[in-house]
Design a protein that fits this description.
single chain; 450 residues; mainly beta; seven-stranded antiparallel beta sheet; 4 helices
Length: 450
């Protein structure tokens, strides 16, 4: 297993703040702002209050991917940008294959505070470490472990906290499952800045202040020690997710993405995309590799929501590719050419799409696609399939459409699937082969709302 020195981790945490500041974030039109702008002239249709904030601030954050199977590390942070009050926030780590939770606890961020975490592979188990020794974490762990063992920034000691699996997890999770997934941070309530020895470290929860505003931001970076590749992104920020306070302890399932003001259907409506788009580079002379990650962060919650029209019952999507010379589009699937009756299926909450068996990541949620070109662009059509009509249809209805009375119809049905997409890329320069070029960018997208 690859080893990381504590010195490298310290330097990497510092560099991550600079690197991720230049990374891009997923964004979507702010329905709440649009509704407010139009309401003054009697044209607004009521829409979900939650929206994806392309500026990166929110009261809930989605960190769309981590993978430490081959010795990589995933370093991340969360910042409370409020300078008058602290924030109690729940962090949940979710494994990729079956969407089961593997660890959760509360972070007590004081005013203007930043907390960082590092996910590593410790003997085949996903393990959380932190270099932060001044931010209180509130852990109610069913295993009886009520304290975190952090890395000491000077000595490098500390074993971290392993993600829960086997008998320590009520779900069917093994150690290997904990090495890949994603995680969420959801604001719960404000904490004051004046008390000492309170229930959130040196502070007390202050429920009288109402809901936490859109004050959280976060970044994540995945570092591969073998290639020195760095894949950094800003967390997807959900703004106006919840207008009240949460008081549940970490042994419960709440809060999760279904517990916002607009429920799972409202969040699905906001996150839905008809198509995802990105470029690819598979140039052999540069050893170029491209992989895609598609995260459906509400999939498991939607499947248990009780709806008769489960948008994830049909896993199929339509993937179209073009090369750089404007050749006619070609439909691809797990086989090339696609045999009759074959579609591409994205069957997990987190899906890694490996192009030409390049193995950028060792993944248990991988779909392999064969592409006959060296570079070009890809569309992932999440409305259609190549063989037959998707049934039930991939679409989500605005839960407030029936109650709207404005003159302007903003659309009641959003076609597609609630998704977040990333493209990760690495290539080498023969003049400096030990230092590759690597990048992560969010995938572009299109909406189809009617």
């Amino acid at each position: 297993m690859k080893k990381f020195s504590i010195g490298l981790l310290s330097v990497f945490i510092c560099l991550m703040s600079f690197t991720a500041a230049h990374a891009l974030t997923d964004g979507m039109i702010s329905w709440g702002d649009l509704e407010a702008d139009l309401s003054g002239i009697g044209l607004a249709q009521e829409t979900p209050s939650v929206h994806v904030n392309p500026a990166g601030l929110g009261d809930a954050l989605i960190y769309g991917y981590y993978n430490v199977r081959s010795g990589e590390i995933n370093a991340f942070n969360v910042v409370n940008t409020a300078t008058s009050y602290g924030v109690r926030a729940r962090i949940r780590f979710i494994e990729a294959k079956d969407s089961f939770e593997v660890l959760d606890f509360d972070i007590c961020l004081s005013a203007g505070d930043e907390w960082n975490g590092i996910i590593m592979n410790n003997g085949g188990v996903g393990t959380l470490h932190s270099l932060d020794d001044d931010t209180y974490v509130d852990v109610v762990d069913p295993r009886g472990d009520t304290s975190f063992i952090f890395y000491d920034k000077y000595t490098g000691n500390g074993s971290g906290v392993g993600f829960k699996y086997g008998s320590e997890n009520p779900n069917d999770v093994d150690a290997d499952d904990t090495l890949e997934g994603y995680f969420l941070i959801i604001a719960e309530n404000w904490i004051d800045e004046v008390s000492s020895g309170g229930n959130c470290g040196d502070h007390d929860d202050d429920l009288s202040l109402g809901s936490v505003g859109n004050v959280l931001m976060g970044t994540a970076s995945q570092l591969d020690s073998a290639t020195l590749a760095n894949y950094s992104y800003n967390a997807t920020a959900l703004a106006d997710f919840y207008s009240s306070v949460y008081t549940t302890d970490p042994t419960t399932a709440a809060p999760n993405l279904a517990n916002g003001d607009d429920g799972i259907e409202g969040l699905n409506y906001v996150l839905t995309k008809a198509s995802l788009y990105t470029t690819y580079d598979l140039l052999a002379t540069a050893d170029a590799v491209t992989a895609l990650v598609v995260n459906f962060p509400t999939r498991s919650l939607t499947e248990v929501d009780g709806s008769d029209n489960d948008i994830f019952d049909d896993d199929r999507v339509l993937i179209n590719i073009w090369d750089d010379e404007e050749n006619s589009p070609e439909t691809v699937c797990e086989f090339s050419p696609c045999p009759t009756g074959t579609d591409t299926e994205l069957e997990y909450e987190v899906n890694v799409i490996d192009l030409n068996n390049s193995n950028l990541f060792d993944s248990e949620v991988e779909t392999e696609l064969t592409i006959p070109y060296e570079y070009g662009w890809i569309e992932i059509d999440m409305v259609n399939a190549s063989v037959s009509v998707i049934d039930p249809a991939h679409q989500t209805t605005n839960p407030y459409a029936a109650a709207s009375s404005g003159l302007l119809d903003l659309g009641s049905v959003s076609h597609g699937l609630p998704a977040i997409g990333y493209q990760m890329h690495i290539l080498y320069d023969d003049t400096n082969p030990d230092f590759p070029y690597s990048a992560l960018v969010p995938m572009q997208y299109m909406h189809n709302i009617e």
